[in-house]
Write a structure and sequence with these properties.
- By secondary structure, the protein is mainly α.
- The chain contains 29 helices and nine strands.
- The protein folds into four domains: 149 residues, no CATH class; 301 residues, no CATH class; 152 residues; 156 residues, Methane Monooxygenase Hydroxylase, Chain G, domain 1, CATH 1.20.58.
- It has a five-stranded antiparallel beta sheet with strand order 2-1-3-4-5. Strands 7-6-9-8 form a four-stranded mixed beta sheet.
- A hairpin with a 5-residue loop joins strand 6 and strand 7.
- Helix 7 packs antiparallel against helix 8, helix 18 crosses helix 21 and helix 23 crosses helix 26.
- InterPro entries: DHC.
- It comes from Chlorella sorokiniana (Freshwater green alga).
- One of its GO terms (cellular component) is dynein complex.
- One of its GO terms (molecular function) is dynein intermediate chain binding.
Length: 920
Amino acid sequence: MAAPSGLFSVETVPGWCPLGPEAQRKSQARRPVAAAAAAPAPSDAGWVKTDEDVAAYFERGGAVEFFYCIRADDAAEAEPAAPGCVSWEAAAAEFFLKVVPQDRVARLQRYYIISRRQVVKVDKRKAGGEHTDAVPLAEWLRHKRAFLRLRQLTFFGSFGLAKCFALWRSNAQGRVLLRRRHQLSQRLFAACPAFAGPLGQAGALMEQLRGARAACVQPRRTYSAADWEEQQAAWRTRKAKPALEAAASQLARVAEGVCASVEAAAEEALATVQPHELSDRIGVDLYAASTKAKARSMQAIKHDKVTRAQAYHTALANRHALPRFLRQLDLRLATALAEGAAASVADAATALQGAAPGLLQQPLGGVAEAGCASDGEEEGQVEGPAGAGGIPGSSPLFLVHVVLEEGGGVGFQPSEAQWAALMEDEMVGASLQLAGSVPPLLTLPAFERYNAALLAGGATTPCADGAAADGAAAEQSGQAGLAGSEEQDPQQVAQHASAAAESAPEQPAPHHRHGAAELAQLDGGFVSGTATSRALLARSFAEARRLAQRYQRYQEIQQYCQEFDFAAWEAAQRAELDLPATEAALRQLQAWQAAVEAMPLQQTAGLLRLDATGLQSSLAPAVASTLESMSGLLLQLAGERCAVLLSEQRAWAEVAAARPPELEGFLAWAAELARMQEAAAGQAAAAAHADAALEVVLSCAGRLPPAEAVRKDDLREAAAQLPAQLGKAAAWAAEQRGVHAVALGQMVREVAEEAVLLEAELQTGMFVDPGATADEVLGELDLQQSRTAQLAAQAGELASVARELTGTDGALLAAAGGGKVPAEVQDAEAAVQRCTALWGLVAEAEVLRDGCSPQTDQQQEGEAAAEAAAAPPPIEQTAERVAALQERLAGLRGSSEETPSAVWLRASSALLACKAALAG
């Protein structure tokens, strides 16, 4: 009897039923209290020794609130002999308690606490620590009184529960069991001795067939498509199919053995039992005459005849039931194969569901992300089918590679359709194929004649003869033993068995229309397992599609790497380096490279492990190659530009350090210095641009080649020193400009002084010989005019050099002579021109005078030839020329008062002589 969970109560008594209402029970079961101790003072609790005293104390309104108690009987403190069983003494001890001090119960494993309202049992022996059960005090007292009242009855004192149950079982259940056994023996092969043993062997083989699994799902392994197909094929080839074939062949041998033994028993019965022995069961006239037989009693002879007849009918009935027995085995074989196929699919579905627990219980779009599964070591071939040894949770089974599709989406390889087909083939289809690979027993050559008998419909119910007779005899003998009646006549028993066999109707043998594969498809477990596996795969791929959205951004990277035209970009950058755009592209490529490196390679989506290793291996080289090409070109362009700028800055530094002292070289050097100063800002910007380009390459590549690094440092140093060098050169140039301006001013002053002297000579006529002719004077004036032109040219050159030297600096320009031709040079040039014009007029006047004056004979003879060639001009023309010369002379006289009077008088005298000659 099981131990009560709480305190002992009247309901826990086996077979107890209430005798009447609780209100009608009297309190005579309470133990009497002595008169001397019946009315102690409520304030004094020293007299309280038992539970009854505690109840009386509380009824009188005592001040103490709690009493600690243990069982009154020391033997009751011992543990029960058998766990789960409580003896009557232990149950009774629950209601007889004694009060103890509180410090004593602290060391006990079990004690009781009684208050005004309830009784609490404290048990520290149970798992989980201290355990308490409570019951109201009034109810506990009622249970105690009821228990004491029941223990006073004679029934409880005389009989125990075991005796009552044994008596009931022997008188009631035994007859039911015998009657049921007789009924089953008429219908079941298991009740026939000829078929019971083989049927048990066949049942064991059926269990082997049911245990064969066509699919093997290894819990802690992640399968690729090839691994999944290979392992399932290997499992069926090495494990499932050999086990199935071995069990089927053993079943066939068991069936052949049954057929052989039953046929042999039937043949032996036909050969040893004569027909008259089946009807003559009274005398010994037809019994085999022998000394030993004649010495037996009639009762023994009749019993022997009944036994032989019974064996004869049993052997023939077993022989007649062989086709049905084989059909039954065939049906069981098909059923076992179908159940095995269904169990295989169900176990595989259970293994899949165990790998993704809770996947079917959650909404399709809300499956929690399992995170990246660790790459565990793959185990070898499993030794048992799916589900054996327990299934760990949250372990992906199928490997799926993440790929980027050309249309702009994220796909999987193998796809959902491919995995669904693989699972359908290797789990469902393989189970059906394996179940259908075992041929039915009746199709084997050894059982063809039994199959023909079944098709002819000539088989009767199994064991209709012998089993029915055995069952009837057993039932009669059992009833006789139980009721104590006298023994039945064996002849009557044999007649009854023969009548039962003859009265059994003939029934046609039904044949199953479905094979093992068809039966498996009708199994609920098969249908449920197939649906579960499909749903798990569908939900896993739905979750995989949700998780694969994070790979969508890598589509941009792949498209960029595929569409990027490096040749066109190189040509554009060589034409004009666009550093901001190039830097942005390199930064983007670096960000993409970091994103590709940080790509989640392993993720779990239900049954699937998403593997992005292939995607990373395809994107990483493309991004790295593009980044390397762009950074390499930028390094080349920046290096070339850096080399050019470094060469220019070094050349500028050489120019700034040249400092020619001569004016001619200084002007060219100053012009070059000014040009360099104007281009210094652009040069610095170009150097900064080249340095920034190299910095971009450095940030992308992590380091620069040694040559480029040296150039970069040299360019940065040269760019830093160039402004100071140009500044120093400019300061020296400014100082030298002042020096050259002063020297140039001195030269200008010398030219001006020479011009003043020339003008003075012209005004005083110091260069004219009084006896010289006008032509001679004009020749001399031509020389003076050439000299004046040289002075003017020299003065112009000096003015141009001054303007070039001083620029816009007024002080330097003033020091250099003003930057224009001196007035003295201009005055000298004007004086030379006036003198030349006056002496030219003198020459013309003298020519006219000579032509108008009388000539000598020699002159006339010399001029005769000239007159023959040209006619003399008319007098009017000569007069006009003279008048024109006089006007010119007057103009020259009025234009300048400084005209030499002697020259003017000479011209005037010549003109007057001409006029006089013309007048004469």
